Automatic annotation (TrEMBL):
This is histidine kinase. The lineage of its organism: Bacteria, Pseudomonadati, Pseudomonadota, Betaproteobacteria, Burkholderiales. Its main location: membrane. Residues 547-765 form the Histidine kinase domain. It is an enzyme of class 2 (transferase). It comes from Roseateles toxinivorans.
């Protein structure tokens, strides 16, 4: 089979031959074209002019002379003669002009110069003869003889004969030149064909010789590749049966030498940056003699070597001829001495990393062609796979031994486990194994349980817990410390702490379940948790009430105080509408304060100590007051309020403040938990002595589970993370207030469909008694104006400004101000005020600590001190009084009572 190289050279040979033939043809064509041009020149420049001269000569000697002769003899009419002569003259003129345009030699030019005057003379004579014909001068025509005609044209005829003779002569010469050129072209073509043939023969012989040489080389390569195929086959058989690495390496080197006819072969393994020779073979392995067993791969010599290149790159590296590769200059002498000319190195991998190098040496240059390299790469790949397989087998044997050991340990642990343990098939749910403690837990023997499901045995987890266990196990793969309830064959339900995970047991996916009996601990913890929950709830309630009281009373102090100041100072400067607005602000503020006080009374409500003032109330008036107070909240949330439709005036028996509080709470919930552009509708009706107020909204609604916990204090029903603010105490307080007013509250709700609240109150009857809700009588007229120095210790600038403007109504009172405890102590010591007003919530020192320091200092121990705070809890009041306060006033401050109290204390101090 021809090699690709032979085919390529044969193709190039054909291309060159075709090129030479083309070149020869082109040169021959050019020569023939020259001959043809020469022949064409003879024809154009000699043959055609010769014919033209002969036509001219014939026109003069024959046509014109004959026409005159025939006319003279009467054989030709005079008109016809004139036409023949005119035609001859035109022919002479045309052909002479064509002749003059041909190629003319020098002799022709000379003869033409002599001929043209004779042609003009002949033309003159012919014109004269034509005139005779035209005049029909018979006598003159008769006098013309043939001799006269010939004599008149004789000179011109002679010159034309000379030109014709010259043309024949020149044509003969050019014809001889053209024949010579033709003969020369024939010889040139023959020479070119000979040269082309010789060149083609030479190149063909060269290609054939090269083909024969390549054929021998190809045959050698095939034999070499066949030998290494056999080596690859023996290697594959070797790696199947041999598991000992040292023997494997030695046998592979021997196979490469004996079967593959390599000159030498060696395998080295990489260890800590060194190549350690493990095996070698070959008659020429003297090449390796004297080399160290451990070869440092970090040296320059190793870095430049073929072996080092293969190790670094992870690809095979080749040196086809030691004597031509400067990179292997160090090895030239050793290679020549041992008859080695070429080598290739192949990286051996183990676990994906270069583990060693296989080096193959040959005694022939260019020994390693591409197919052989690919074959050796495959051999080394098979060796790498064998090494990985050895490692996998070792790991498998180790894993089997570990598994057997672990299985034995598992059996021991399983049956000696201090907790009840079961193994249950995840597919059939049958018990595959159970330890003795687990069997006792369920009142059965291990033999009775194995092979059955827990449902068949009617023991184990309750259905809800069992379902939750399997769902979590399938989702997460394991369950840790799941508290469950389970039953045994007899006795009460038990509590267990269950842990389970998926395991493989006898080739099947199973659940290993371990449960610890925590029934006794569960009961103990439950009792303790209930107690802690009660304590925590009480503490949370107390903390919440205290915080809410303080946080609401502080801003209410400013709202109510400044509103009162505006109302008392308004006079005629305010319009009635503005005064009415201030009245509404003040009314809402005092109502809010009343609500705060009600929150503080939650504990008293639960104890049954809250007092209500029930009286006859017009229901719609209270409803509209509640709507007015919640209108701003509805606008903020984008909710539309619909008051009850007009109808008969309904009256109820209730406390006005508490009823308004109930309505505001219900309306606020309907607004806050509604949707944007939602609706809240109210309606009132009376049935069987009871008046019913119905509030319906289009809001979020509540589930059955939420309705079950609706009246639990401080429970926001899972909406703690929402943006809606709240404390969770409103509905609990609302139901208690409704019950105290001998009414009830009913709530119907569905998720996403809104909520309907029904408030039922007893209607007013004529037999009922009324408790007038009149205001307390105003205090007696002021005594003499009070005077003195008042020190107010307060960090809130608004509260400070309010007290300042209130005390401005007492002209005899001077106000001193301190914004923190330290400054207040200093002023109290230096100024000795007649009255000291002390806020208990200061930024640097607590108010109680300020009280203690004032009473402990002899200079300030006798000062009159009033604690002025937003805290209204009983324990807060008691703590202030115990710390040394003479009185405790809660915010918000009412103008008249506050001024009366200050005046009273100042007058008492002055006395």
């Amino acid at each position: 089979m021809r090699s690709p190289g032979f085919k390529t050279r044969l193709t190039w040979l054909l291309v060159v031959l075709l090129a030479l033939m083309g070149l020869s043809g082109y040169l021959a064509l050019q020569r023939l074209r020259g001959v043809a041009a020469s022949i064409s020149t003879v024809y154009q420049d000699r043959v055609l002019p010769l014919q033209q001269l002969r036509l001219i000569h014939n026109a003069y000697r024959v046509q014109i002379a004959d026409a005159l002769t025939l006319a003279r003899e009467g054989s030709l009419s005079q008109g016809q003669a004139m036409r023949d002569i005119a035609q001859a003259r035109q022919l002479i003129k045309t052909e002479w002009q064509r002749y003059l345009k041909t190629y003319l030699v020098e002799d022709e030019l000379r003869l033409i110069a002599q001929t043209e005057p004779l042609m003009r003379q002949a033309e003159t004579q012919i014109q004269a003869w034509l005139e005779l014909l035209e005049r029909r001068d018979a006598a003159s025509l008769a006098s013309l003889s043939q001799a006269r005609l010939t004599a008149a044209l004789q000179p011109l005829s002679g010159r034309l004969d000379a030109l014709i003779t010259l043309q024949l002569k020149v044509a003969e010469e050019e014809n001889r030149a053209s024949r010579a050129a033709y003969d020369e072209a024939i010889w040139v073509i023959a020479a070119l064909m000979l040269i082309t043939g010789l060149a083609g023969t030479g190149m063909g012989w060269t290609v054939f010789a090269r083909y024969r040489l390549e054929g021998r080389e190809q045959e050698q390569r095939r034999e070499r590749l066949q030998r290494f195929y056999m080596a690859l086959s023996q290697t594959n058989q070797l790696i199947v049966r041999e598991r000992h690495e040292a023997t494997l390496f030695a046998e592979i080197c021997r196979i490469c030498v004996n079967t593959g006819h390599a000159g030498c072969c060696a395998i080295g393994l990489v260890d800590d940056g060194h190549l350690v020779r493990q095996a070698h073979a070959g008659a020429q392995d003297g090449f390796l003699a004297g080399l160290p067993q451990r070869w440092d791969l970090g040296t320059d010599e190793a870095q430049r070597s073929v072996t080092g290149t293969a190790w670094r790159s992870g690809q095979h590296a080749v040196c086809q001829d030691f004597l031509e590769d400067l990179a292997t200059l160090h090895w030239h002498e050793r290679a020549l001495k041992n008859g080695l000319r070429a080598m290739a190195a192949f990286p051996i991998r183990r676990g994906g990393q270069v583990f060693g190098v296989l080096a193959v040496y040959a005694s022939e240059p260019n020994f390693f062609d591409a197919p052989l390299l690919a074959l050796l790469d495959e051999m080394v790949g098979d060796l790498s796979y064998a090494l990985d397989d050895i490692d996998r087998e070792r790991a498998r044997q180790t894993a089997l031994a570990d598994a057997e050991r672990d299985r034995e340990q598992f059996r021991l642990l399983f049956h000696r486990s201090p907790v009840a343990t079961l193994i249950i098939s995840m597919q059939s749910k049958r018990v595959l194994d159970v330890n003795s403690l687990g069997a006792r837990r369920y009142g059965l023997s291990a033999e009775q349980m194995i092979g059955h499901t827990m449902q068949e045995l009617d023991v184990g987890l309750l259905p809800a817990y069992r379902q939750a266990l399997y769902e979590r196990l399938e989702a997460e793969g394991r369950v840790s410390n799941l508290e469950v309830q389970l039953r045994g064959r007899a006795g009460p339900l038990l509590w267990g702490l269950l842990s389970a995970e998926l395991i493989s047991y006898h080739g099947e996916t199973c659940m290993l379940a371990m449960s610890l009996d925590v029934t006794e601990r569960r009961m103990t913890e439950k009792a303790r948790e209930e107690q802690q929950a009660a304590v925590a709830a009480n503490q949370a309630k107390t903390a919440f009430l205290s915080r809410m009281s303080h946080e609401l009373r502080t801003p209410l102090n400013a709202v109510l105080g400044f509103t009162k100041l505006l109302m008392t100072a308004a006079g005629s400067r305010r319009s009635p509408q503005e005064l009415d607005q201030l009245t509404h602000v003040q009314s809402a503020g005092w109502h809010l304060l009343a609500l705060v006080n009600d929150v503080l009374d939650v504990a008293r409500i639960e104890a049954g100590n809250l007092r209500l003032h029930a009286r006859r109330l017009p229901l719609l008036q209270v409803v509209h007051e509640a709507l007015d107070m919640t209108e701003a909240l509805a606008s903020e949330h984008g909710v539309h309020l619909h008051p009850p439709p007009p109808g008969d005036e309904l009256t109820v028996r209730a406390d006005p403040i508490r009823l308004r509080q109930v309505l505001i709470n219900v309306l606020s919930n309907a607004i806050k938990y509604n949707r944007r552009d939602g609706q809240v509708s109210l309606s009132c009706s009376q049935q069987q002595g009871m008046v019913e107020i119905e509030v319906t909204d289009t809001g979020l609604g509540m589930s059955a589970e939420q309705l079950a916990h609706l009246y639990e204090p401080f429970n926001r029903l899972g909406r703690e993370a929402s943006k809606v603010e709240g404390s969770g105490v409103g509905l609990a307080l609302t139901r208690q207030l409704m019950q105290l007013m001998q009414g009830e509250i009913r709530i119907d709700s569905q998720p996403g469909r809104g909520t309907r609240v029904r408030l039922s109150l007893p209607g007013w009857t004529s037999s009922g008694t009324t408790e007038p809700g009149a205001l307390d009588a105003l205090p007696a007229p002021h005594q003499a104006p009070a005077s003195g120095r008042v020190l107010y210790i307060e960090d809130n600038a608004v509260n400070m400004l309010l007290v300042e403007q209130m005390l401005a109504r007492l002209p005899g009172v001077e106000l001193l101000q301190a914004c923190n405890g330290a400054e207040g102590l200093a002023l109290a010591t230096s100024q000795q005020p007649d009255l000291l007003l002390l806020d208990l919530d200061l930024p640097d020192i607590t108010g109680l600590e300020v009280l203690r320091r004032l009473r402990a200092d002899a200079d300030t121990a006798g000062l009159t001190i009033v604690a002025l705070s937003a805290g209204a809890m009983a324990d807060e009041v008691q703590a202030a009084l115990q710390a040394g306060a003479d009185d405790y006033w809660t915010k918000p401050l009412d103008l008249e009572p506050f001024l009366a109290g200050v005046s009273r204390l100042l007058r008492a101090g002055g006395a």
